[in-house]
Protein backbone atom coordinates (compact mmCIF):
# COMPACT_ATOMS: atom_id res chain seq x y z
CA UNK A 1 0.00 0.00 0.00
CA UNK A 2 3.14 2.11 0.07
CA UNK A 3 6.85 1.61 -0.38
CA UNK A 4 9.64 3.26 1.56
CA UNK A 5 12.96 3.50 -0.28
CA UNK A 6 15.97 4.62 1.74
CA UNK A 7 18.26 6.99 -0.15
CA UNK A 8 20.56 7.82 2.76
CA UNK A 9 20.90 6.19 6.18
CA UNK A 10 24.02 7.68 7.78
CA UNK A 11 24.01 10.20 10.63
CA UNK A 12 25.91 13.46 10.15
CA UNK A 13 28.64 12.34 7.77
CA UNK A 14 28.44 10.32 4.56
CA UNK A 15 30.44 7.10 4.43
CA UNK A 16 31.47 5.01 1.43
CA UNK A 17 28.45 2.76 2.03
CA UNK A 18 25.82 5.18 3.34
CA UNK A 19 24.79 8.66 2.34
CA UNK A 20 23.34 11.25 4.70
CA UNK A 21 19.61 11.23 5.30
CA UNK A 22 16.94 11.04 2.61
CA UNK A 23 13.89 8.78 2.45
CA UNK A 24 11.47 8.27 -0.43
CA UNK A 25 7.83 7.35 0.15
CA UNK A 26 6.18 5.86 -2.94
CA UNK A 27 2.48 5.79 -3.65
CA UNK A 28 0.93 2.36 -4.13
CA UNK A 29 -0.35 3.34 -7.57
CA UNK A 30 1.65 5.03 -10.31
CA UNK A 31 5.06 6.63 -10.14
CA UNK A 32 4.37 9.43 -7.66
CA UNK A 33 6.70 9.72 -4.71
CA UNK A 34 7.56 12.02 -1.82
CA UNK A 35 10.95 12.89 -0.41
CA UNK A 36 11.49 13.18 3.33
CA UNK A 37 14.78 14.99 4.00
CA UNK A 38 17.37 15.64 1.34
CA UNK A 39 20.97 15.33 2.50
CA UNK A 40 23.82 16.28 0.16
CA UNK A 41 24.11 13.79 -2.68
CA UNK A 42 20.44 12.79 -2.76
CA UNK A 43 20.22 13.63 -6.48
CA UNK A 44 23.22 11.35 -7.01
CA UNK A 45 21.48 8.52 -5.15
CA UNK A 46 18.40 8.95 -7.35
CA UNK A 47 20.53 8.12 -10.40
CA UNK A 48 20.74 4.57 -9.02
CA UNK A 49 16.97 4.14 -8.63
CA UNK A 50 13.92 4.27 -10.87
CA UNK A 51 12.67 7.44 -9.13
CA UNK A 52 12.48 10.50 -11.34
CA UNK A 53 12.52 14.17 -10.35
CA UNK A 54 9.49 14.59 -12.60
CA UNK A 55 7.34 12.25 -10.50
CA UNK A 56 8.37 13.89 -7.22
CA UNK A 57 5.12 15.18 -5.68
CA UNK A 58 6.38 16.91 -2.56
CA UNK A 59 9.34 17.38 -0.23
CA UNK A 60 9.20 17.28 3.57
CA UNK A 61 12.18 18.45 5.63
CA UNK A 62 12.30 17.36 9.27
CA UNK A 63 14.79 19.97 10.58
CA UNK A 64 17.42 22.43 9.40
CA UNK A 65 20.60 20.46 10.03
CA UNK A 66 22.74 20.19 6.92
CA UNK A 67 22.84 16.39 6.74
CA UNK A 68 19.06 16.56 6.18
CA UNK A 69 18.86 19.41 3.65
CA UNK A 70 22.14 20.24 1.86
CA UNK A 71 21.06 18.23 -1.17
CA UNK A 72 18.09 20.53 -1.81
CA UNK A 73 19.66 23.25 -4.01
CA UNK A 74 21.24 20.66 -6.29
CA UNK A 75 18.16 18.45 -6.52
CA UNK A 76 15.89 21.42 -7.23
CA UNK A 77 18.14 22.93 -9.89
CA UNK A 78 18.82 19.57 -11.54
CA UNK A 79 15.07 18.92 -11.73
CA UNK A 80 14.81 22.23 -13.59
CA UNK A 81 17.67 21.35 -15.95
CA UNK A 82 15.92 18.04 -16.67
CA UNK A 83 12.80 19.94 -17.72
CA UNK A 84 10.47 19.83 -14.73
CA UNK A 85 7.69 22.41 -15.07
CA UNK A 86 5.22 21.08 -12.44
CA UNK A 87 5.06 23.20 -9.25
CA UNK A 88 6.68 21.57 -6.22
CA UNK A 89 5.63 21.93 -2.59
CA UNK A 90 8.25 21.89 0.14
CA UNK A 91 7.08 21.56 3.73
CA UNK A 92 10.05 22.63 5.84
CA UNK A 93 11.22 24.80 8.72
CA UNK A 94 11.26 28.49 7.77
CA UNK A 95 15.06 28.58 7.72
CA UNK A 96 15.06 26.21 4.75
CA UNK A 97 13.00 28.61 2.67
CA UNK A 98 15.33 31.48 3.58
CA UNK A 99 18.39 29.42 2.68
CA UNK A 100 16.97 28.23 -0.67
CA UNK A 101 15.96 31.79 -1.51
CA UNK A 102 19.54 32.84 -0.72
CA UNK A 103 20.74 30.14 -3.15
CA UNK A 104 18.40 31.41 -5.85
CA UNK A 105 19.58 34.97 -5.30
CA UNK A 106 23.32 34.43 -4.87
CA UNK A 107 24.02 31.47 -7.15
CA UNK A 108 21.84 32.62 -10.02
CA UNK A 109 19.84 29.49 -10.20
CA UNK A 110 16.81 29.67 -12.38
CA UNK A 111 13.91 27.33 -11.74
CA UNK A 112 11.49 26.72 -14.62
CA UNK A 113 8.83 25.61 -12.12
CA UNK A 114 7.20 27.10 -9.05
CA UNK A 115 8.43 26.26 -5.55
CA UNK A 116 5.67 26.41 -2.96
CA UNK A 117 7.06 26.68 0.54
CA UNK A 118 4.90 25.68 3.48
CA UNK A 119 6.38 26.51 6.89
CA UNK A 120 6.21 23.35 8.97
CA UNK A 121 5.86 25.56 12.06
CA UNK A 122 2.40 26.57 10.75
CA UNK A 123 1.49 23.32 9.00
CA UNK A 124 -1.89 22.07 10.19
CA UNK A 125 -1.99 19.02 7.93
CA UNK A 126 -2.83 18.63 4.28
CA UNK A 127 -3.45 16.09 1.55
CA UNK A 128 -0.73 15.11 -0.90
CA UNK A 129 -1.95 12.68 -3.55
CA UNK A 130 -3.16 9.56 -1.75
CA UNK A 131 -1.70 10.65 1.59
CA UNK A 132 -3.03 12.84 4.32
CA UNK A 133 -0.05 14.30 6.13
CA UNK A 134 0.27 15.52 9.70
CA UNK A 135 3.27 16.46 11.82
CA UNK A 136 4.44 15.68 15.34
CA UNK A 137 6.93 17.90 17.17
CA UNK A 138 10.01 15.99 18.30
CA UNK A 139 12.89 16.85 20.60
CA UNK A 140 16.34 17.63 19.21
CA UNK A 141 18.95 20.41 19.40
CA UNK A 142 16.82 22.38 16.90
CA UNK A 143 13.06 22.08 16.25
CA UNK A 144 12.50 18.73 14.55
CA UNK A 145 9.38 17.06 13.20
CA UNK A 146 7.93 13.69 12.32
CA UNK A 147 5.72 13.42 9.25
CA UNK A 148 2.74 11.11 9.60
CA UNK A 149 1.49 9.73 6.29
CA UNK A 150 -1.94 8.10 6.21
CA UNK A 151 -3.55 6.53 3.18
CA UNK A 152 -6.98 4.95 2.92
CA UNK A 153 -7.51 1.95 0.73
CA UNK A 154 -10.81 0.25 0.02
CA UNK A 155 -10.62 -3.49 -0.16
CA UNK A 156 -13.29 -5.25 -2.20
CA UNK A 157 -13.86 -8.81 -1.06
CA UNK A 158 -15.94 -11.38 -2.98
CA UNK A 159 -18.54 -13.35 -1.05
CA UNK A 160 -17.46 -16.65 -2.51
CA UNK A 161 -20.12 -18.91 -0.93
CA UNK A 162 -22.91 -16.60 -2.06
CA UNK A 163 -21.52 -16.59 -5.62
CA UNK A 164 -21.32 -20.38 -5.71
CA UNK A 165 -24.83 -20.69 -4.30
CA UNK A 166 -26.11 -18.34 -7.01
CA UNK A 167 -24.41 -20.46 -9.65
CA UNK A 168 -21.98 -17.80 -10.98
CA UNK A 169 -18.98 -19.83 -12.20
CA UNK A 170 -15.52 -18.93 -10.95
CA UNK A 171 -13.55 -16.98 -13.60
CA UNK A 172 -13.64 -13.62 -15.36
CA UNK A 173 -17.20 -12.89 -14.13
CA UNK A 174 -15.97 -12.91 -10.53
CA UNK A 175 -13.26 -10.40 -11.45
CA UNK A 176 -15.82 -8.10 -13.12
CA UNK A 177 -18.06 -8.22 -10.05
CA UNK A 178 -15.11 -7.54 -7.72
CA UNK A 179 -14.07 -4.51 -9.75
CA UNK A 180 -17.59 -3.07 -9.43
CA UNK A 181 -19.37 -4.16 -12.59
CA UNK A 182 -22.72 -5.91 -12.87
CA UNK A 183 -22.69 -9.02 -15.07
CA UNK A 184 -25.14 -11.17 -17.00
CA UNK A 185 -24.78 -14.97 -16.98
CA UNK A 186 -27.13 -17.32 -18.83
CA UNK A 187 -29.75 -14.59 -19.16
CA UNK A 188 -29.66 -13.63 -15.47
CA UNK A 189 -28.35 -10.27 -14.22
CA UNK A 190 -26.10 -10.24 -11.17
CA UNK A 191 -25.52 -6.96 -9.34
CA UNK A 192 -22.00 -6.58 -7.90
CA UNK A 193 -23.29 -4.96 -4.71
CA UNK A 194 -24.93 -8.27 -3.81
CA UNK A 195 -21.68 -10.22 -3.98
CA UNK A 196 -18.95 -7.81 -2.89
CA UNK A 197 -18.27 -6.37 0.54
CA UNK A 198 -16.06 -3.31 0.82
CA UNK A 199 -13.84 -2.47 3.74
CA UNK A 200 -11.86 0.68 4.21
CA UNK A 201 -8.41 0.09 5.67
CA UNK A 202 -6.10 2.84 6.83
CA UNK A 203 -2.33 2.62 6.49
CA UNK A 204 -0.08 4.80 8.58
CA UNK A 205 3.64 5.39 8.25
CA UNK A 206 5.55 7.80 10.47
CA UNK A 207 8.88 9.11 9.21
CA UNK A 208 10.79 11.01 11.85
CA UNK A 209 13.50 13.61 12.03
CA UNK A 210 16.22 13.49 14.66
CA UNK A 211 14.67 12.90 18.07
CA UNK A 212 15.83 12.03 21.55
CA UNK A 213 12.32 11.39 22.99
CA UNK A 214 10.40 8.68 21.12
CA UNK A 215 7.50 8.98 23.62
CA UNK A 216 6.51 12.20 21.84
CA UNK A 217 5.06 9.85 19.23
CA UNK A 218 2.67 8.26 21.76
CA UNK A 219 -0.50 9.70 20.27
CA UNK A 220 0.53 9.47 16.61
CA UNK A 221 1.82 5.95 17.18
CA UNK A 222 -1.72 4.61 17.64
CA UNK A 223 -2.63 2.44 14.66
CA UNK A 224 0.78 3.10 13.15
CA UNK A 225 1.82 0.36 10.75
CA UNK A 226 5.44 1.34 10.34
CA UNK A 227 7.71 3.71 12.23
CA UNK A 228 10.89 5.03 10.60
CA UNK A 229 13.03 6.45 13.39
CA UNK A 230 16.66 7.30 13.96
CA UNK A 231 18.79 4.95 16.06
CA UNK A 232 22.04 6.85 15.90
CA UNK A 233 23.68 4.80 18.65
CA UNK A 234 23.53 1.71 20.80
CA UNK A 235 22.60 2.37 24.43
CA UNK A 236 26.11 2.47 25.85
CA UNK A 237 27.30 5.15 23.44
CA UNK A 238 23.91 6.88 23.29
CA UNK A 239 23.95 7.59 27.01
CA UNK A 240 27.39 9.20 26.68
CA UNK A 241 26.22 11.34 23.75
CA UNK A 242 22.83 12.33 25.16
CA UNK A 243 23.58 16.04 24.67
CA UNK A 244 23.50 15.55 20.88
CA UNK A 245 19.74 14.96 21.04
CA UNK A 246 19.66 11.53 19.39
CA UNK A 247 18.09 8.18 20.25
CA UNK A 248 19.69 4.79 20.74
CA UNK A 249 18.32 1.50 19.49
CA UNK A 250 16.85 0.10 22.73
CA UNK A 251 15.16 3.40 23.51
CA UNK A 252 13.28 3.50 20.19
CA UNK A 253 12.52 -0.22 20.25
CA UNK A 254 11.12 -0.03 23.80
CA UNK A 255 8.82 2.76 22.70
CA UNK A 256 7.68 0.83 19.60
CA UNK A 257 7.01 -2.22 21.79
CA UNK A 258 4.97 -0.24 24.30
CA UNK A 259 3.04 1.50 21.49
CA UNK A 260 2.29 -1.82 19.76
CA UNK A 261 3.79 -0.62 16.49
CA UNK A 262 4.29 -3.78 14.42
CA UNK A 263 7.08 -2.59 12.10
CA UNK A 264 10.15 -0.57 12.99
CA UNK A 265 12.76 0.66 10.50
CA UNK A 266 15.87 2.11 12.13
CA UNK A 267 18.02 4.59 10.22
CA UNK A 268 20.44 7.55 10.72
CA UNK A 269 23.20 5.29 11.98
CA UNK A 270 26.40 6.84 13.34
CA UNK A 271 29.33 6.14 11.02
CA UNK A 272 31.12 4.37 13.89
CA UNK A 273 28.80 1.37 13.30
CA UNK A 274 30.15 -0.49 10.32
CA UNK A 275 28.24 -2.73 7.95
CA UNK A 276 30.94 -5.36 8.34
CA UNK A 277 29.56 -7.35 11.28
CA UNK A 278 33.05 -8.56 12.23
CA UNK A 279 33.87 -4.93 13.06
CA UNK A 280 33.00 -3.63 16.53
CA UNK A 281 30.76 -1.74 16.85
CA UNK A 282 28.69 -2.82 13.85
CA UNK A 283 25.11 -2.30 12.71
CA UNK A 284 24.45 -5.83 13.97
CA UNK A 285 24.84 -4.39 17.47
CA UNK A 286 22.10 -1.82 16.74
CA UNK A 287 19.83 -4.58 15.43
CA UNK A 288 20.37 -7.03 18.28
CA UNK A 289 19.87 -4.30 20.89
CA UNK A 290 16.52 -3.40 19.29
CA UNK A 291 15.47 -7.05 18.96
CA UNK A 292 16.22 -7.68 22.63
CA UNK A 293 13.34 -5.41 23.71
CA UNK A 294 11.00 -5.49 20.71
CA UNK A 295 8.83 -8.29 19.43
CA UNK A 296 7.76 -6.76 16.09
CA UNK A 297 9.57 -6.68 12.76
CA UNK A 298 12.65 -4.51 12.95
CA UNK A 299 15.36 -3.73 10.38
CA UNK A 300 18.41 -1.50 10.49
CA UNK A 301 18.06 -0.17 6.98
CA UNK A 302 20.71 0.37 4.33
CA UNK A 303 20.90 2.74 1.38
CA UNK A 304 18.73 1.62 -1.55
CA UNK A 305 16.72 -0.85 0.51
CA UNK A 306 13.05 -0.69 -0.41
CA UNK A 307 10.41 -1.83 2.08
CA UNK A 308 6.79 -2.52 1.18
CA UNK A 309 3.85 -2.12 3.54
CA UNK A 310 1.33 -4.52 2.02
CA UNK A 311 -2.46 -4.65 2.29
CA UNK A 312 -2.31 -6.82 5.39
CA UNK A 313 -0.03 -4.37 7.21
CA UNK A 314 3.10 -6.49 6.85
CA UNK A 315 6.42 -4.83 5.94
CA UNK A 316 8.86 -6.76 3.76
CA UNK A 317 12.08 -5.96 1.95
CA UNK A 318 11.42 -5.95 -1.80
CA UNK A 319 14.04 -6.26 -4.53
CA UNK A 320 16.01 -3.07 -5.07
CA UNK A 321 15.52 -1.31 -8.37
CA UNK A 322 19.08 -0.17 -8.84
CA UNK B 1 56.15 19.55 -9.15
CA UNK B 2 52.41 19.49 -8.63
CA UNK B 3 49.57 17.00 -9.03
CA UNK B 4 46.06 17.70 -10.28
CA UNK B 5 43.40 15.25 -9.10
CA UNK B 6 39.98 15.52 -10.70
CA UNK B 7 37.12 15.03 -8.26
CA UNK B 8 34.31 15.90 -10.67
CA UNK B 9 34.35 16.31 -14.45
CA UNK B 10 30.70 16.57 -15.54
CA UNK B 11 29.00 19.76 -16.71
CA UNK B 12 25.80 20.83 -14.95
CA UNK B 13 24.42 17.45 -13.88
CA UNK B 14 26.10 14.54 -12.13
CA UNK B 15 26.07 11.20 -13.93
CA UNK B 16 26.72 7.71 -12.59
CA UNK B 17 30.32 7.98 -13.78
CA UNK B 18 31.11 11.67 -13.28
CA UNK B 19 30.37 14.12 -10.53
CA UNK B 20 29.93 17.86 -11.02
CA UNK B 21 33.01 20.05 -10.98
CA UNK B 22 35.75 19.93 -8.38
CA UNK B 23 39.52 19.84 -8.92
CA UNK B 24 42.27 19.28 -6.36
CA UNK B 25 45.74 20.78 -6.76
CA UNK B 26 48.35 19.03 -4.63
CA UNK B 27 51.63 20.49 -3.51
CA UNK B 28 54.76 18.65 -4.60
CA UNK B 29 55.87 18.27 -0.97
CA UNK B 30 53.72 17.08 1.94
CA UNK B 31 49.99 16.54 2.07
CA UNK B 32 48.79 20.09 1.46
CA UNK B 33 46.21 20.58 -1.26
CA UNK B 34 43.87 23.19 -2.71
CA UNK B 35 40.34 22.78 -3.98
CA UNK B 36 39.18 24.57 -7.10
CA UNK B 37 35.37 24.49 -7.26
CA UNK B 38 33.25 22.29 -5.06
CA UNK B 39 30.19 20.80 -6.75
CA UNK B 40 27.64 18.86 -4.70
CA UNK B 41 29.09 15.55 -3.57
CA UNK B 42 32.72 16.69 -3.45
CA UNK B 43 33.03 15.52 0.17
CA UNK B 44 31.73 12.13 -0.97
CA UNK B 45 34.38 11.97 -3.72
CA UNK B 46 37.10 12.74 -1.16
CA UNK B 47 36.18 9.54 0.70
CA UNK B 48 37.59 7.63 -2.27
CA UNK B 49 40.95 9.46 -2.26
CA UNK B 50 43.81 9.99 0.17
CA UNK B 51 42.99 13.70 0.46
CA UNK B 52 41.92 14.85 3.91
CA UNK B 53 39.87 17.88 4.90
CA UNK B 54 42.57 18.61 7.49
CA UNK B 55 45.26 19.12 4.84
CA UNK B 56 43.05 21.38 2.71
CA UNK B 57 44.92 24.71 2.55
CA UNK B 58 42.50 26.83 0.56
CA UNK B 59 39.40 26.82 -1.66
CA UNK B 60 38.99 28.73 -4.91
CA UNK B 61 35.57 29.05 -6.53
CA UNK B 62 35.47 30.05 -10.20
CA UNK B 63 31.85 31.26 -10.37
CA UNK B 64 28.53 31.06 -8.54
CA UNK B 65 26.75 28.37 -10.55
CA UNK B 66 25.55 25.53 -8.35
CA UNK B 67 27.42 22.74 -10.11
CA UNK B 68 30.62 24.49 -8.99
CA UNK B 69 29.73 25.33 -5.37
CA UNK B 70 26.80 23.35 -3.92
CA UNK B 71 29.19 20.97 -2.19
CA UNK B 72 30.63 23.77 -0.04
CA UNK B 73 28.24 23.77 2.96
CA UNK B 74 28.57 20.00 3.38
CA UNK B 75 32.33 19.92 2.94
CA UNK B 76 32.85 22.80 5.36
CA UNK B 77 30.58 21.38 8.05
CA UNK B 78 31.96 17.85 7.67
CA UNK B 79 35.51 19.21 8.07
CA UNK B 80 34.33 20.72 11.35
CA UNK B 81 32.69 17.47 12.49
CA UNK B 82 35.97 15.69 11.72
CA UNK B 83 37.80 18.08 14.04
CA UNK B 84 39.36 20.70 11.79
CA UNK B 85 40.48 23.76 13.78
CA UNK B 86 42.83 25.39 11.24
CA UNK B 87 41.41 28.55 9.61
CA UNK B 88 40.41 28.11 5.96
CA UNK B 89 40.58 30.72 3.21
CA UNK B 90 37.96 30.72 0.45
CA UNK B 91 38.59 32.89 -2.59
CA UNK B 92 35.21 33.17 -4.30
CA UNK B 93 32.67 35.53 -5.83
CA UNK B 94 30.92 37.62 -3.18
CA UNK B 95 27.66 35.72 -3.67
CA UNK B 96 29.31 32.56 -2.33
CA UNK B 97 30.15 34.26 0.96
CA UNK B 98 26.57 35.54 1.26
CA UNK B 99 25.18 32.07 0.55
CA UNK B 100 27.49 30.29 3.01
CA UNK B 101 26.66 32.87 5.66
CA UNK B 102 22.97 32.18 4.98
CA UNK B 103 23.67 28.47 5.51
CA UNK B 104 25.44 29.19 8.81
CA UNK B 105 22.53 31.37 9.94
CA UNK B 106 19.58 29.30 8.74
CA UNK B 107 20.84 25.71 9.10
CA UNK B 108 22.52 26.19 12.47
CA UNK B 109 25.83 24.93 11.34
CA UNK B 110 28.64 25.53 13.75
CA UNK B 111 32.20 25.68 12.48
CA UNK B 112 34.98 25.04 14.99
CA UNK B 113 37.42 26.89 12.70
CA UNK B 114 37.58 30.30 11.07
CA UNK B 115 36.46 30.84 7.48
CA UNK B 116 38.33 33.66 5.77
CA UNK B 117 36.48 34.85 2.69
CA UNK B 118 38.37 36.74 0.01
CA UNK B 119 36.18 38.28 -2.70
CA UNK B 120 37.63 37.20 -6.03
CA UNK B 121 36.33 40.46 -7.50
CA UNK B 122 38.95 42.29 -5.35
CA UNK B 123 41.64 39.60 -5.35
CA UNK B 124 44.96 41.04 -6.50
CA UNK B 125 46.92 37.81 -6.08
CA UNK B 126 48.40 36.17 -3.02
CA UNK B 127 50.63 33.34 -1.90
CA UNK B 128 49.20 30.03 -0.70
CA UNK B 129 51.87 27.64 0.52
CA UNK B 130 54.19 26.98 -2.39
CA UNK B 131 51.91 28.67 -4.92
CA UNK B 132 51.52 32.25 -5.95
CA UNK B 133 47.96 32.64 -7.20
CA UNK B 134 46.55 35.13 -9.69
CA UNK B 135 43.20 35.31 -11.47
CA UNK B 136 42.07 35.93 -15.03
CA UNK B 137 38.54 37.13 -15.86
CA UNK B 138 36.76 34.79 -18.24
CA UNK B 139 33.53 35.07 -20.21
CA UNK B 140 30.42 33.16 -19.13
CA UNK B 141 26.77 33.87 -18.30
CA UNK B 142 27.94 35.09 -14.87
CA UNK B 143 31.38 36.47 -13.90
CA UNK B 144 33.82 33.56 -14.05
CA UNK B 145 37.51 33.30 -13.26
CA UNK B 146 40.58 31.25 -13.98
CA UNK B 147 43.06 30.64 -11.17
CA UNK B 148 46.72 30.73 -12.19
CA UNK B 149 48.97 28.74 -9.85
CA UNK B 150 52.71 29.31 -10.10
CA UNK B 151 55.34 27.54 -8.06
CA UNK B 152 59.09 28.06 -8.13
CA UNK B 153 61.37 25.12 -7.68
CA UNK B 154 65.12 25.23 -7.39
CA UNK B 155 66.87 22.37 -9.09
CA UNK B 156 70.29 21.44 -7.76
CA UNK B 157 72.43 19.73 -10.34
CA UNK B 158 75.73 18.01 -9.59
CA UNK B 159 78.71 18.82 -11.82
CA UNK B 160 79.64 15.21 -12.29
CA UNK B 161 82.85 15.68 -14.27
CA UNK B 162 84.20 18.17 -11.76
CA UNK B 163 83.46 15.74 -8.92
CA UNK B 164 85.23 12.90 -10.67
CA UNK B 165 88.19 15.11 -11.48
CA UNK B 166 88.41 16.13 -7.82
CA UNK B 167 88.38 12.46 -6.80
CA UNK B 168 85.14 12.50 -4.80
CA UNK B 169 83.76 8.97 -5.18
CA UNK B 170 80.20 8.47 -6.39
CA UNK B 171 77.90 7.59 -3.50
CA UNK B 172 76.47 9.18 -0.36
CA UNK B 173 78.95 12.08 -0.49
CA UNK B 174 77.48 13.22 -3.80
CA UNK B 175 74.01 13.21 -2.24
CA UNK B 176 75.21 15.32 0.69
CA UNK B 177 76.82 17.85 -1.65
CA UNK B 178 73.66 17.98 -3.80
CA UNK B 179 71.48 18.67 -0.76
CA UNK B 180 73.71 21.62 0.20
CA UNK B 181 76.18 20.17 2.71
CA UNK B 182 79.95 20.44 2.64
CA UNK B 183 81.77 17.12 3.05
CA UNK B 184 85.18 15.87 4.07
CA UNK B 185 86.82 12.98 2.19
CA UNK B 186 90.23 11.57 3.04
CA UNK B 187 91.10 14.66 5.02
CA UNK B 188 90.09 17.12 2.30
CA UNK B 189 87.11 19.48 2.60
CA UNK B 190 84.79 19.88 -0.37
CA UNK B 191 82.43 22.83 -0.46
CA UNK B 192 79.08 22.04 -2.08
CA UNK B 193 78.95 25.40 -3.87
CA UNK B 194 81.93 24.29 -5.95
CA UNK B 195 80.15 21.21 -7.27
CA UNK B 196 76.47 22.11 -7.49
CA UNK B 197 74.73 24.47 -9.88
CA UNK B 198 71.25 25.72 -8.99
CA UNK B 199 68.56 26.65 -11.45
CA UNK B 200 65.22 28.14 -10.60
CA UNK B 201 62.36 26.72 -12.65
CA UNK B 202 58.83 28.08 -12.64
CA UNK B 203 55.80 25.83 -13.02
CA UNK B 204 52.47 27.25 -14.04
CA UNK B 205 49.05 25.59 -14.02
CA UNK B 206 45.88 27.43 -15.00
CA UNK B 207 42.58 26.01 -13.76
CA UNK B 208 39.59 27.70 -15.37
CA UNK B 209 35.96 28.22 -14.62
CA UNK B 210 33.32 28.06 -17.32
CA UNK B 211 34.41 30.15 -20.30
CA UNK B 212 33.37 30.70 -23.89
CA UNK B 213 36.44 32.75 -24.90
CA UNK B 214 39.74 30.90 -24.38
CA UNK B 215 41.65 33.83 -25.90
CA UNK B 216 41.13 35.71 -22.64
CA UNK B 217 43.94 33.48 -21.37
CA UNK B 218 46.39 34.86 -23.97
CA UNK B 219 48.56 36.73 -21.50
CA UNK B 220 48.35 34.23 -18.64
CA UNK B 221 48.97 31.40 -21.10
CA UNK B 222 52.58 32.48 -21.64
CA UNK B 223 54.91 29.93 -20.06
CA UNK B 224 51.92 27.92 -18.93
CA UNK B 225 52.79 24.26 -18.40
CA UNK B 226 49.29 22.90 -18.11
CA UNK B 227 45.87 24.33 -18.87
CA UNK B 228 42.75 22.83 -17.31
CA UNK B 229 39.79 24.12 -19.30
CA UNK B 230 36.20 23.16 -19.90
CA UNK B 231 35.28 21.47 -23.18
CA UNK B 232 31.59 21.06 -22.59
CA UNK B 233 30.82 20.16 -26.21
CA UNK B 234 32.20 19.18 -29.55
CA UNK B 235 32.12 21.92 -32.18
CA UNK B 236 28.86 20.91 -33.87
CA UNK B 237 26.86 20.98 -30.65
CA UNK B 238 28.87 23.83 -29.14
CA UNK B 239 27.92 26.17 -31.98
CA UNK B 240 24.22 25.38 -31.40
CA UNK B 241 24.57 25.99 -27.66
CA UNK B 242 26.74 29.13 -27.85
CA UNK B 243 24.27 31.09 -25.69
CA UNK B 244 25.16 28.90 -22.68
CA UNK B 245 28.62 30.47 -22.55
CA UNK B 246 30.70 27.31 -22.87
CA UNK B 247 33.58 26.18 -25.04
CA UNK B 248 33.91 23.24 -27.39
CA UNK B 249 36.92 21.02 -27.76
CA UNK B 250 38.40 22.39 -31.00
CA UNK B 251 38.03 25.96 -29.76
CA UNK B 252 40.07 25.34 -26.61
CA UNK B 253 42.59 23.15 -28.40
CA UNK B 254 43.16 25.77 -31.12
CA UNK B 255 43.84 28.34 -28.45
CA UNK B 256 46.27 26.03 -26.61
CA UNK B 257 48.05 25.32 -29.89
CA UNK B 258 48.40 29.02 -30.72
CA UNK B 259 49.57 29.81 -27.19
CA UNK B 260 52.16 27.00 -27.25
CA UNK B 261 50.76 25.44 -24.09
CA UNK B 262 52.25 21.94 -23.98
CA UNK B 263 49.63 20.18 -21.83
CA UNK B 264 45.86 20.48 -22.03
CA UNK B 265 43.41 18.77 -19.70
CA UNK B 266 39.78 19.01 -20.82
CA UNK B 267 37.00 18.69 -18.27
CA UNK B 268 33.37 19.77 -17.57
CA UNK B 269 31.99 17.42 -20.20
CA UNK B 270 28.29 17.55 -21.06
CA UNK B 271 26.51 14.41 -19.87
CA UNK B 272 25.46 13.70 -23.47
CA UNK B 273 29.05 12.48 -24.14
CA UNK B 274 29.29 9.00 -22.70
CA UNK B 275 32.41 7.23 -21.53
CA UNK B 276 31.40 4.20 -23.59
CA UNK B 277 33.15 4.98 -26.88
CA UNK B 278 30.67 2.84 -28.83
CA UNK B 279 27.99 5.37 -27.84
CA UNK B 280 27.54 8.46 -30.00
CA UNK B 281 28.44 11.08 -29.00
CA UNK B 282 31.19 9.89 -26.67
CA UNK B 283 34.13 11.49 -24.91
CA UNK B 284 36.29 9.99 -27.65
CA UNK B 285 34.70 12.57 -29.97
CA UNK B 286 35.82 15.38 -27.66
CA UNK B 287 39.35 13.96 -27.58
CA UNK B 288 39.72 13.40 -31.32
CA UNK B 289 38.35 16.86 -32.10
CA UNK B 290 40.98 18.41 -29.80
CA UNK B 291 43.78 16.23 -31.18
CA UNK B 292 42.90 17.23 -34.72
CA UNK B 293 44.02 20.82 -34.08
CA UNK B 294 46.50 20.47 -31.21
CA UNK B 295 49.96 18.97 -31.18
CA UNK B 296 50.58 18.92 -27.42
CA UNK B 297 49.52 16.40 -24.80
CA UNK B 298 45.75 16.43 -24.34
CA UNK B 299 43.46 14.32 -22.18
CA UNK B 300 39.73 14.37 -21.61
CA UNK B 301 39.88 13.73 -17.90
CA UNK B 302 37.75 11.42 -15.75
CA UNK B 303 36.82 11.50 -12.08
CA UNK B 304 39.68 10.36 -9.82
CA UNK B 305 42.33 10.68 -12.52
CA UNK B 306 45.49 12.20 -11.10
CA UNK B 307 47.94 14.00 -13.39
CA UNK B 308 51.49 14.92 -12.44
CA UNK B 309 53.42 17.87 -13.80
CA UNK B 310 57.01 16.74 -13.35
CA UNK B 311 60.25 18.69 -13.07
CA UNK B 312 60.76 18.65 -16.82
CA UNK B 313 57.30 20.11 -17.50
CA UNK B 314 55.77 16.85 -18.71
CA UNK B 315 52.25 15.86 -17.61
CA UNK B 316 51.50 12.18 -17.07
CA UNK B 317 48.64 10.20 -15.61
CA UNK B 318 49.77 8.67 -12.32
CA UNK B 319 48.13 5.75 -10.53
CA UNK B 320 44.93 6.70 -8.76
CA UNK B 321 44.95 6.55 -4.99
CA UNK B 322 41.43 5.30 -4.56
UniProtKB/TrEMBL annotation, chains A, B:
It holds the Pfam family Anti-Pycsar_Apyc1. Zn(2+) 2 binds at residues 67-68, 210, 268. GO terms for molecular function: 3'-tRNA processing endoribonuclease activity. It comes from Vibrio mangrovi. Homodimer. Keywords: Endonuclease, Hydrolase, Metal-binding, Nuclease, tRNA processing, Zinc. Zinc phosphodiesterase, which displays some tRNA 3'-processing endonuclease activity. Probably involved in tRNA maturation, by removing a 3'-trailer from precursor tRNA. Belongs to the RNase Z family. Its cofactor is Zn(2+). The keyword Nuclease applies. This is Ribonuclease Z. Binds 2 Zn(2+) ions. The active site is at residue 67. Zn(2+) 1 binds at residues 63, 65, 140, 210. Its EC number is 3.1.26.11. It catalyses: Endonucleolytic cleavage of RNA, removing extra 3' nucleotides from tRNA precursor, generating 3' termini of tRNAs. A 3'-hydroxy group is left at the tRNA terminus and a 5'-phosphoryl group is left at the trailer molecule. It is an enzyme of class 3 (hydrolase).
Amino acid sequence: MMDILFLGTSAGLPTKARNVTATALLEAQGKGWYLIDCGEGTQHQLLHTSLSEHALRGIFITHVHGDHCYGLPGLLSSAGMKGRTEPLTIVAPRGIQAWIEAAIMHTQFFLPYELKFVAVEDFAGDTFGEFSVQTVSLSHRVPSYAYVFVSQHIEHKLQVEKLLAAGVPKGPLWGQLQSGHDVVYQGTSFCYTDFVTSHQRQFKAIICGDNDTPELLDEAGKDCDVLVHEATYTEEIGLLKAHYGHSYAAQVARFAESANIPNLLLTHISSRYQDDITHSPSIADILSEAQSVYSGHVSVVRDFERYRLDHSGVVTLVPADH
